[in-house]
């Protein structure tokens, strides 16, 4: 439960041409694996294709070749075995907090009692029990993304996919959300694939960090983060890892 | 989406309801009185100007009856039951055609906005028909259905359906793509995408379509009743009053037509808006 295998995927976008690369090839022979319960970040410079990788795993787009397997089953489209958290939140404005979180659970067609129990559990997990009947327009940015997290957690997927979920938030909110997500992850021990351009964020949250780079893109570095949890941001080890990753990304940009 | 970002993810905004401390504070009363004056002022000014013109401009009473005559005619209509009968006839036609037309239009517009085949098939005919004014189709309807209820209803249903289709179509087409992606990611597809995501997301445009359709339908209805001379109805009353030179009845009738239209809009459409798109924050609350 919760194993993700990405095998030799390539992605070509028709019409996406660069002067130095007329093929439109964005990803080439990219492979990586996530074991059950691992929190793995995908980092890299802007436009490197990390969001593309996430969309492919989510089934919102299809690879040009290669395959993606979740728990041994091939990904052919979107599915409730994967929960997605979007950078722009993408909450449904006509639904309350509780109903947003329940959206995917409804698609799972559980009996009403079980559905209610799940929704209550995850509303509480993301810390929004007091606001469960509010509509998104009355929530702050951080609260809205908590709803986004709740919606993805609530379907109890095999893998959670997060596309720069805190990118639209200010720095303070971002840091408190990182801590909140860290706690949620510790409580649920889900497999998470986390896309970000924020190196410190990736170190703070992950067991492993994958650096994507090159054109067309591949994995240029697979680094294990051997820091104790709960993570502390201002240790020497943290900074060393940060420097390593910065260098790796800088290298990737030059290619 | 509102870009009101707070730090710490803590505070939520209170939606504007009544006075900060409840409905009967002096603040709230003062605001209510002010609102009332804003609404009443133009009416009072118009009434004064009307009376002044009627009494002192030297225009014949037939053209410009004083308010007294108008209200007396109105009172007569109320008392002898003709107003009730006319309102009932007109409203029935309105309700039937709006319900049928809106249902057809919403369905067709949503299909056009979400399924390419439907859009390709209907974009030509819809745009063609949008260019033809509804009132120009009166002779056609009268040829087909004669001077009957069916002629009036057919034109109304057609107008409502067309307007609602056009607005629903553009509304569904302009839904934020991220909402559709989220819908797909969380298990919606085909019919469930339609009902659970597309319709609610397009609701502001759909309701705008309902507003437009409603006001068009109301005006066409009155004219249709005049032309087709059905047995009862506000338009019918206006027509006959004109024929008989009862200008006071004409003005009284116009007053009723305008007021009824206004009340319908306030009661039906505003309530619909308040409990949906305003509560969701997708449209700003203006009053």
Could you characterize the architecture of this molecule?
The complex is a heterodimer of chains A (255) and B (287). Chain A is built from 7 helices and 10 strands. Chain A has 2 domains: 150 residues, P-loop containing nucleotide triphosphate hydrolases (Rossmann fold, 3-Layer(aba) Sandwich), CATH 3.40.50.300; 75 residues, no CATH class. Chain A is α/β, with parallel strands linked by helices. The radius of gyration of chain A is 18 Å and the shape is globular. Chain A starts with a strand and ends with a helix. In chain B, α3 packs parallel to α6, α6 packs antiparallel against α9 and α9 runs antiparallel to α11. Chain B starts with 25 loop residues before the first helix and ends in a 9-residue tail after the last helix. The chains are: A alpha/beta (255), B mainly alpha (287). At the A-B interface, β6, α2, α4 and α5 of A face α7 and α8 of B.
Short synopsis of the structure:
The complex is a heterodimer of chains A (255) and B (287). Chain A is of the alpha/beta class and 255 residues long. Chain A has seven helices and ten strands.
């Amino acid at each position: 439960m919760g194993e993700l295998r990405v095998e030799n995927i390539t992605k070509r976008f028709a019409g996406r041409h660069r002067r130095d690369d007329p093929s439109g090839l964005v990803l080439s022979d990219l492979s990586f694996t996530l074991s059950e319960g691992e929190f793995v970040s995908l980092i890299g410079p802007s436009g490197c294709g990390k969001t593309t990788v996430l969309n492919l795993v989510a089934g919102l787009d299809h690879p040009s070749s290669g395959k993606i397997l979740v728990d041994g089953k091939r990904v052919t489209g979107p599915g409730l075995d994967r929960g997605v958290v979007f950078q722009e939140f993408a909450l449904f404005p006509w639904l309350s907090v509780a109903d947003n979180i329940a959206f995917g659970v409804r698609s799972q067609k559980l009996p009403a009692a079980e559905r209610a129990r799940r929704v209550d559990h995850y509303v509480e997990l993301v810390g929004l029990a007091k606001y469960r009947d509010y509509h998104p327009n009355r929530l702050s940015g951080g609260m809205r993304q908590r709803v986004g997290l709740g919606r993805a957690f609530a379907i109890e997927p095999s893998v959670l996919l997060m596309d720069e979920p805190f990118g639209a938030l200010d720095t303070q909110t971002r840091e408190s959300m990182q801590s909140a997500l860290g706690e949620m992850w510790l409580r649920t021990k889900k497999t998470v694939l986390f896309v970000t351009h924020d190196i410190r964020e990736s170190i703070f949250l992950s067991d492993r960090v994958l650096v994507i780079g090159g054109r067309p893109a591949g994995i240029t570095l697979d680094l294990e983060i051997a820091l104790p949890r709960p993570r502390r941001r201002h240790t020497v080890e943290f900074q060393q890892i940060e420097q390593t990753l910065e260098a790796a990304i800088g290298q990737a940009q030059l290619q | 989406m509102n870009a009101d970002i707070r730090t710490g993810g803590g505070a939520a905004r209170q939606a504007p309801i009544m006075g900060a401390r409840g409905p009967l504070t002096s603040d709230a009363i003062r605001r209510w009185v002010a609102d009332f004056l804003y609404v009443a002022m133009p009416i009072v000014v118009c009434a004064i100007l009307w009376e002044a013109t009627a009494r002192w401009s030297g225009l014949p009473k037939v053209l410009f009856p004083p308010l007294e005559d108008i209200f007396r005619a109105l009172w007569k209509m109320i008392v002898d039951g003709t107003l009730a009968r006319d309102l009932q006839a007109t409203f029935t036609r309105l309700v039937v055609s709006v319900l049928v037309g809106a249902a057809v239009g919403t369905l067709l517009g949503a299909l056009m906005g979400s399924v390419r085949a439907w859009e390709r098939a209907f974009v030509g005919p819809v745009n063609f028909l949008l260019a033809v004014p509804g009132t120009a189709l009166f002779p056609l309807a009268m040829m087909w259905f004669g001077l009957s209820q069916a002629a009036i209803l057919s034109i109304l249903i057609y107008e409502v359906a067309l307007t609602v289709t056009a607005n629903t179509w553009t509304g569904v087409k302009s839904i934020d793509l991220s909402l559709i992606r989220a819908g797909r990611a969380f298990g919606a597809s085909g019919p469930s995408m339609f009902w659970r995501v597309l319709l609610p997301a397009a609701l502001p445009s759909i309701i705008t379509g309902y507003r437009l359709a409603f006001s068009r339908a109301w005006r066409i209805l009155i004219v249709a009743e005049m032309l087709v001379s059905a047995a009862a109805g506000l338009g019918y009353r206006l027509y006959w009053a004109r024929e008989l030179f009862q200008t006071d009845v004409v003005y009284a009738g116009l007053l009723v037509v305008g007021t009824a239209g206004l009340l319908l809009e306030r009661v039906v459409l505003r309530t619909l808006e308040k409990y949906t798109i305003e509560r969701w924050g997708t449209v700003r609350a203006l009053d």
